[in-house]
Design a protein that fits this description.
By secondary structure, the protein is α/β, with parallel strands linked by helices. The chain has one domain: Rossmann fold. It has eight helices and 14 strands. It has an eight-stranded mixed sheet, with helices on both faces. Helix 4 runs parallel beside helix 6. The radius of gyration is 17 Å and the shape is globular.
Amino acid sequence: MNGLIALLGSGEYLPVMDDVDRHLLAHCGAEGRKARVVCLPTAAGQEGEKSVSRWSGMGMEHFTRLGADVQAVPVIDEKSANDLNHASAVEEADLIYFSGGDPGYLYRTMKDSLVWQAAQKAWAHGAVYAGCSAGAMILGREMPDFRALGIRSTAAFGVIPVASVMPHFDAIPLFGKPLVATLRRRLLEGEIMIGIDEDTAIVGKVNEEWTVLGKAKAHVFTKTETTSYAAGEKFSLGK
């Protein structure tokens, strides 16, 4: 990937993310014209038409207000993920935005699809990838099963050099904290995992520094250490 990656703990399409999304629009390669944004409600594809329409409408309204040329692309299942028109819209985008929902469903729907291939081509040309919650989780090596307190996990795309991404991190209830300990024990030697608080994003590139943007913090875990970074602070993924 040559474009920026933005991973959000929560807050997609809400005013609390205005500054984050203005930053993404300013760095998406759209020079002298409106940025082309595509919003994909794929992670909510199993939630029904009402939920898909809500996410699509929120994305359209949000990025139109920020001055972008925005299109909601209704990729909600395997068939629509292999639609040539949808793939074309994604490949031509400057900012590709996946909202939240079911990370496992999002991964399965995107894997080997024309739309995912188109997204990779767009990123190679400098487009921005933005993923909130489920959209962030699919870029790690694996996605922990929170219901099983992290004992089980499923594969993810492994785009960024982290074991897993945990969104909504500051909202994890006290009884969910053993999840973090379990996941740490499963880390490979030299591997890290990331926690991202709500209304917060980390923005960067795979082999460059990342910056925390938004209202709260990001947390980097090794087997033995935890380091937290506030908004405006920078950190490395260690690769």
